[in-house]
Amino acid sequence: MMIFKLAIRNILGAGLRTWLNVIVLSLAFVTIILSIGINQGLVTQISTSMIKSEIGSGQYWQANYDPYDPFSLQDAHAVIPGDIEDLIEQKKAVPVLLTQGTIYPQGRIMPVFLKGIPAEQAVLQMPSAALGTGDEELPALVGARMAKSAALNLGDTVTLRWRDKNGTFDAKDAVIVHIMNTTVGTIDNMQVWLPLTKLQEMMGLPGEASLVIVDENIETVPEVSGWDFKDQDFLLKDFRELIKTRAIARSIFYVLLLFVAVIAIFDTQFLSIFERRKEIGTLISLGMTKAKVIQLFTLEGALHGFLAALVGAAYGIPLINYLARRGIDLPQSSDSFGLALGHTLYPTYSTMLVLSITVFILIVVTIVSYLPTRNISKLNPTDALRGRL
Amino acid sequence: MQDSQLIETQNLVKKFPMGRETLVALDNISLSFSKGEFSGIIGPSGSGKTTFLNIIGTLDVPSEGNVNVLGAQVENLSHKEAAQLRNRHIGFIFQTFNLLPVYTVFENVEFPLLLQGVPVDKRKQAVMDALDWVGLADRAKSRPNQLSGGESQRVAIARAIVKKPSLILADEPTANLDAENSHNVLQTMVQLNQELEATFIFSTHDEKVIQYLRRKISLIDGKVVKDEAMDLVAQPS
Predict the structure, then answer these.
(1) Which strands, in side-by-side order, build the sheet including B64-69?
(2) Maximum Cα–Cα distance across chain B
(3) Tell me: the pLDDT tens digits for A164-173?
């Protein structure tokens, strides 16, 4: 307790130098927590959007379906088996039929994926209901990115061309009945959504689908012959790999930031021991043991960390709260990142996150504070009293 | 060692390595000091005065010989035991005052008692008493950089006496003071020596100090060349 009191006295007595260190360290605290919160928000926001709009709790893929192989796509369809049909009837799954096609917006040719989805589905968060409300012969739903790239507007008619199950080309005009705003680029870019029954009819594949998306709240699904169930982990794997790659770059940034902060502490400690060697000699002459002097100096350094945590909390908590509530506006160009990010990013913070980062930084600061103090144990008190090391 | 003796050195030798050479700072010194003495080790710079004070103050150890301070053999003390002995029984007064710069006068004087774990009430009383003795009770809240040299040295004296030590070691205590402050400080020490019965041992070559001493031990090149008791009447009042 005595050492603690002395350490408090010493660092408060050091005045400006203490506060400069504390401010630099508090910036490191807040920036690291803020940055991790932004990243967590990004991961949560993107994966939630993908789960709600595209992935669900997983997808049954027809055995030939491979999203990375355009040549097999034409054969990636089959009649929906009974077990999966049951899930669909219980509104726990939604079938999607998929084929490649071409559209001809304003005389241009544009390759697209034609996707059939039941208008009445409620498994995915997308405005498929728009496909079932009008009296158009072939209503079509596109995303805002797709509409922009194809220069399509609401009510426009666009010619679709596709090949049916026999490989025969066919064409038909579709009317754009809705343009959806979605953060998930993979249900928007190069996608034209049609009513499932219409696409089945156009392709001569009644009752067939390429994949079936299971509701996000369904935890267990039956195994079905000829259809492979791909769970969330599998479907989010690419995204998570991407995040992991970014995490390395972020970690380097955190390490640099923390390094700058702790180097200030190290420097202060080192200089402190050099400048205060006479004081160290005095403390020893007054009856303090070297071990106690080392404790005192280490604690002084560590207290910079505690003060920085307090100062950081004073301005960091309101800032973090504000950003978590208000979100961070992203530039329009964020659409081109290829991530389901939207235009506002909401950082997410947990108490555990804040506590663990705080404890980690405090441990680092304490270790860094201790390292220079080891010189004290080698110090001869009579030399120290004369101001020598 | 007799009961009245606080310190006894027998054949004390202190050597320092200086490159390939060895410097003999103290050469075969045998001295004893009794309770209540007001003595001084006098001699020119480099004669070994401070080294002698450091050893009897348990800040250093002899290379050879025996040193008994307040019943403890200095050469056998552990680092912790030496620290305890200094903390409880030995007060130091330095040439450059060595006040802790971020502490107030009160906190500087309080420091040895904090190390001893003295309760807060007793501590406060003892600090104010010590500051009263040196006439600085009204400067308790000042910082060292707000004090004159004479005031700083009086704070250092208060810090040395606050724990009522048996032994006070003063290393060139007037070297940074003018004549008037030197006399004030020395008169304070004489008074404390009489009131507290603490043993004062000075290291000095300052004539102003020497005229106050009741015993002068002259040291040249690490050897005692003269050890003389002074006539009390000769002391300045």
Answers:
(1) B21-34, B5-18, B64-69, B72-73
(2) 55
(3) 999 899 999 9
Q: Cα torsion at A63, A69, A74, A79 (round to 10°)?
A: 20
How much of chain A is in helix, strand and coil states, percent to nearest 5?
A: 55, 20, 25
Query: To the nearest whole angstrom, how far is the Cα of A289 from the nearest Cα of chain B?
Result: 6
Give the end of a domain, one of A186, A220, A254.
A220
Q: Which residues pair with B224 in a beta bridge?
A: B219
Per-residue pLDDT tens for B155-181? 999 999 899 899 999 998 888 778 888
- Phi, psi of B113, deg, nearest 5: -75, -35
CATH superfamily for B36-54+79-229 is P-loop containing nucleotide triphosphate hydrolases (3.40.50.300)
Pick from A376, A260, A364: nearest CA to A20: A260
Residue A234 lies in a domain: no
- C-alpha span between B228 and A376 (Å, rounded): 40
How many Å apart are CA B154 and CA B177, to the nearest integer? 11
- Other CB atoms closer than 10 Å to residue B121's CB: what's the count? 8
Per-residue pLDDT of A285-344, as tens digits, reads: 999 998 999 999 899 888 888 999 999 999 999 998 898 888 888 776 655 555 656 667
CB A101 within 8 A of CB A112: yes
Q: Among residues 114-143 of chain A, which lie with CB inside 8 Å of chain B? A: none
Interface of B with A in 62-91 (CB under 8 A): 79-80, 83-88
* Planar angle of CA A170, A177, A115, nearest 5 degrees: 45
Distance from the A15 Cα atom to the nearest Cα atom in chain B, whole angstroms: 9
Residues of B in contact with A14 (CB under 8 A): 102
Task: Based on the fold, state whether residues A186 and A214 are members of the same structural domain.
Answer: yes
ipTM: 0.89
Total tally of structural domains belonging to chain A: 2
Cα-Cα-Cα-Cα dihedral of A237, A238, A241, A242, to 10°? -140
pLDDT tens figures, B1-59: 555 688 999 999 999 988 888 999 999 999 999 999 999 999 998 899 999 999 999 99
Is A229 a member of any domain? no
**Interfacial A residues in 232-291 facing B (CB < 8 Å):** 278-279, 281-290
CA dihedral B122, B123, B127, B132 (to 10 degrees): -10
Cα(A91)–Cα(A122) distance, rounded to whole angstroms? Answer: 7
Please say whether the beta carbons of A222 and A83 come within 8 A.
yes
pLDDT digits (tens, 9 = 90+) for B196-217: 888 999 999 888 889 999 999 9
Instruction: For residue A315, give its domain range.
Output: 2-52+239-385
